[in-house]
Amino acid sequence: MSSESDHPSAITGGCLCGAVRYTVNFPEDSTWPPNPQSCQCTLCRKWTGTLIPQFLELSPSQIHWNTSPPTKYASSPGVYRAFCNTCGSSLYMHYAEIEKEELALAVGTLDEEWLIGEKTGNGIERKGGYGRELGTPSGGTVWFQNRIEGVTDLMGVGKRWEAMGDSREM
């Protein structure tokens, strides 16, 4: 765990059109960074439109919806994927049947100031940002069996599991 001086007490984000906005709170007992992970399953790829979707594992109690919450879609038994019903942005995934209560928040929905920093006086350079910490899947990659050789297997950080819930590390 980190002290307040090492990370923000809250970060913000939302969908493309702004209809869904949220704040993620980091109480003193929370982990920083909040377990960044990636997934290479076909469902996550289709849902996000990217080869390596990246998520932050969070407790639902850490997220405050500043607007109406997103729409949920039951993509498979016990798994819900949430999105903006106006612009379609993928926001989070929730495993309702897993005892451990957690959400997988899409990293790309965080506001740019948290990922790449705030613009400085000249409007080009940036100061701050937590993109390296939040965007590096140090928490691991699931469904690594679906990797595309030479393309999606190049991230050399974190554990790699063949499938979700699989205890076999690759």
What can you tell me about this protein's structure?
The protein contains three helices and twelve strands, in the order E-E-E-H-E-E-E-E-E-E-H-E-E-H-E. The protein is mainly beta. The strands form three sheets. A seven-stranded mixed sheet has the order 6-7-8-9-4-3-12. It has a three-stranded antiparallel sheet with strand order 1-2-5, with no helix packed on it. The chain has a two-stranded antiparallel sheet with strand order 10-11. Strand 6 and strand 7 form a beta hairpin. The two termini are 27 Å apart.
Across the major sheet, the strand order is 6-7-8-9-4-3-12
Q: What proportion of the residues is helical, as a percent range?
A: under 10%
Shape call:
globular
Q: How many beta strands in the DSSP annotation?
A: 12
Q: Could you describe the largest sheet, including whether it forms a barrel?
A: 7 strands, mixed
Number of DSSP helices? 3
Q: What order do the SSEs take from the amino end to the carboxyl end, as H and E?
A: EEEHEEEEEEHEEHE
Beginning-to-end CA distance, first to last residue: 27 Å
- Overall structural class, as computed from helix and strand content, comes to mainly beta
The chain-level mean pLDDT equals 86
Q: How much beta, percentage-wise?
A: 25-35%
